[in-house]
Write a structure and sequence with these properties.
homodimer, four-stranded antiparallel β-sheet, 21 strands, alpha/beta, 13 helices
């Protein structure tokens, strides 16, 4: 009998003796973070093919948040914000190499998550939580930045995106880690067939998640599982069982497999009898990457543009909270909420006070979804791109202080963040400043940001008079972190990750030659 | 005690003696047809404000058809197609005054539904059905074209759109009929406050529908109710109770009131115990009228453009079938289906053979939703604009043979059917022919019609080889009807509708001076 199966059976047997985790115990926490999945990719949020039965059921049993935002329209800063509860401009996940640039953690990035930041698993540890990340890390891949150095007890996954394959000369293939040592590389031990899109990685990540849950159930220790599968990020992949099954092509196949996996995880919680003591949240790191074209990108539903932009399509995310017996089933909650709230909310669920030595951007959402779902908290959403506050949402209104899609040069190269969409003066190809007279939209009447409210109206002046002080206060009190995403160097790539010796997979490290990273968007 | 209340109570009392309507009896039929409501206006189809709890519940209890189409992107032809089961180009609801023009029935239209057409209520009558239309007719307003001359036993509503107010000199206000006589006019006896948007018309239409249902239940006669409320057509209106309640502005208020009304009607069926013997279908006449701007138009979700166009936003409709005990709850059915199927399906439900002396475009959907929801029928969808076949869908593929939004002249006047959307070579402002090399899209991967499939691919050639014979066959066998929407005349306006004498509301009829109507789009 294999280890995981044995563990699972033990867990089943131990049901009756494990009822200690009552209402008073802090719940387990599972955050499922998708990669480049768009708001409009879920059936319950209007994807016409309606191929997410498990997520739709999760919403029907839980609470849907249609006004949930990421902290940045790109993966690394978004993930850093989730784990620190702070805007990237505070936690250092941004660049000052250019104005309003999206930066992330490619293999040549020198920086990573600052040691001055406090990550969610580091605090949860104090209350006895065991934390595991499954999937994509993306908070820096040099040794000191990896998950086990930053609060996680366990990790199975990769530090960077699964781009490739590379020939390991100019650029190494990205390693896959099991805890603190690599166990192979993408396109080598962990195959992704670029031609067919076949890869069993989601199945591996699912099994890693399920095994962790089983193990923690058996050990009767509260756990934090950060399940960060990356199948919907280009190059998009799915396992053979799902390939060709979607009406939506390969991207849809990947969504179907992730949806299936979500269903398996929730089902396992029920089987183990811990559904009432496990808080689960599903969301995505940024909007669908429309520039990846029809077969490798998702849908942002009725929203404007996508990943890399601060329009709704770039930052509004699918979001479902699920906690049977605690969260009333089938509710929709219109609270303006953010991936950074998951930090504060998780601490609240664990009964831990948040750090008081730093500014936090996350709200505690527990009052919203546990007690009074109709009492919304009036809070702004800040839309940053790199070092610039591009836009602010307050209530139904959103004010754009800067607009930019990308440069005409990039557009000519085929990089288009808003294919088929063009709102004059809004989806600009130059960085356009509107701070003296922001573009204001009513997102209820006009979720697609197509009809700026006339500056001559009373409505515009009223909104401006309410948003301006919020922006002024934010800017005046903001203490920006030291930017971590400024320097690049081929020497820091994943040439010789820990564990490479055992596998005979160490590559020669080239000489260091750092440069200021270029961030064209 | 008022009439309706008495009727209602009697109906309740008569429950036990009225169980004759068993499975063998033909069911009552209710078709709820909205006006300019878009695919994306329902919560269950992704409207971010999720303000349609009754429609969402209807879908959860019934069957959702995400691939349901109207027959034309404009109201009159769409409605004529519903009631005849035939494409407008066959039933005469089109114009030959220009190429590919959208035509409808404004007050100056001379024509209307041809006496050679057979309308649904005319056939249902043979099986003892009593038919009522509540709301907008739009199949011609001259005496011979009105509902009671075309198979309906009862009518409460208006023959034309609720444009206005007019001063009754150059143009009369549109009459509201009760059966064969007018009972007032819009903006006079039936107020719509253009400033506030307040009107209690939806409440009146709701009550008319409920009273009819009660009456038929009492009389134990099968009925056909065609409930065609128009609150979501500009000028958009709602009653005081709903005004200001939506997150979406006035349009959302109207949707909320319609959603409430749908809930009331379904609830009444349950109260009367006839939910198992009443087939209900909800849909809309064409896509959201995006040109009406953010406060007076709805959402077409992820689809391209809207009303007046043959892109998905113009013709794909929200569609829900509901029939407890017969249609399995909560299913999604991907059958390519059409408003014309409602004709054929209704006849099938009533146990009547469809007319065999003419071409019908409607399918009988009963096998799809009653017996084998997974056995889809392979049938094309034809997208017409006036006298031109603009596009064809077969399976997931759609081929555009002609593209056009509207002319640059109209665009300069502010008429924009695709605000904020621009797909080069697709959303053209000239009538562009592609018949030698149609633009082909895969609507599963690319529901927004943004990425035409390259003609150089095997996929393109394969699709073309399958679609071409379908188009050829259609064109070769098509017998176009005599166009009814070519001639206009101020003399035919609603100056002196039947019943005007009793009300003292007859207006002087100007001299006849017919002209060829101009259809700019």
């Amino acid at each position: 009998m294999s280890g995981p199966v044995l563990t699972f059976l033990c867990a089943l047997i131990c049901f009756s003796c494990a009822e200690k985790l009552g209402a008073a115990s802090p719940p387990n926490i599972i955050i499922m973070l998708m990669d480049d999945m768009g708001w409009g990719d879920l059936g319950v949020l209007g994807q016409p093919s309606k191929e997410t039965p498990n997520l739709d059921a999760m919403a029907a049993q839980g609470m849907l948040f249609p006004n949930f935002y990421t902290a940045n329209p790109l993966c690394s800063p978004s993930r850093a914000a989730l784990l620190t509860g702070r805007l990237p401009v505070r936690n250092g996940f941004y660049t000052t190499n250019g104005h309003a640039r999206n930066a992330y953690t490619p293999q040549e990035i020198v920086g990573g998550i600052s040691r001055d930041e406090i990550l969610l698993p580091q605090i949860l540890k104090k209350k006895g939580y065991i934390s595991k990340i499954v999937g994509k890390w993306h908070l820096g891949h040099r040794a000191q930045y990896l998950p086990l150095k930053n609060g996680f007890h366990q990790w199975f996954g990769a530090p960077n995106c699964h781009f490739g394959p590379y020939n390991n000369s100019g650029r190494p293939n990205v390693p896959v880690y099991n805890n603190s040592e690599m166990v192979g590389r993408y396109y080598e031990e962990f195959q992704i067939d670029r031609k067919t899109g076949e890869s069993n990685l989601t199945q591996i990540y699912l099994q890693e998640g399920l095994d962790f849950i089983n193990g923690q159930r058996l050990a009767q220790q509260p756990f934090f599982l950060y399940w960060a599968a990356d199948a919907t990020h280009a190059p998009v992949y799915a396992s053979r069982r799902f390939l060709g099954k979607s009406q939506r092509g390969r991207y849809g196949d990947a969504v179907m497999e992730l949806d299936y996996s979500v269903g398996q995880i929730l089902s396992r919680l029920r089987t183990l009898g811990i559904e009432n003591s496990t808080f689960v949240f599903f969301t995505s790191d940024n909007g669908a990457a429309l520039t990846s074209g029809p077969s490798e990108s998702g849908s942002n539903g009725p929203f404007l543009c996508g990943k890399e932009t601060t329009y709704e399509g770039g930052m509004r995310e699918p979001a479902i909270a699920w906690w049977p017996g605690h969260i009333t089933a089938g509710k929709v909650n219109f609270q303006l909420s953010s991936v950074m709230d998951l930090f504060t909310t998780s601490l609240s669920l664990a009964g831990i006070s948040p750090p008081d030595d730093r500014a936090l951007d996350g709200l505690d959402l527990t009052p919203v979804f546990l007690n009074s779902p109709h009492t919304l908290q009036n809070r702004p959403i800040f839309y940053y791109r790199g070092n610039e506050l591009m836009a602010v949402r307050l209530g139904q209104y959103k004010a754009h202080y800067w607009t930019w899609t990308n440069s005409l040069d990039e557009l000519k190269k085929g990089v288009n963040f808003c294919p088929g969409q063009e709102v004059p003066g809004v989806t600009t190809h130059e960085q356009k400043e509107h701070t003296m007279q922001p573009l204001i939209f009513h997102l209820g009447r006009d979720p697609g940001e197509k009809f700026p409210i006339s500056v001559l109206t009373e409505e515009y002046q009223d909104v401006l008079s309410r948003i301006s002080p919020v922006v002024d206060h934010h800017k005046k009190t903001l203490v920006a972190g030291i930017p971590q995403l400024n320097m690049c160097d081929v020497a820091v790539m994943n040439w010789a990750p820990a564990g490479c010796e055992k596998l005979g997979k160490c590559l020669k490290v080239p000489e260091s030659s750092p440069w200021k990273c270029e961030w064209p968007h």
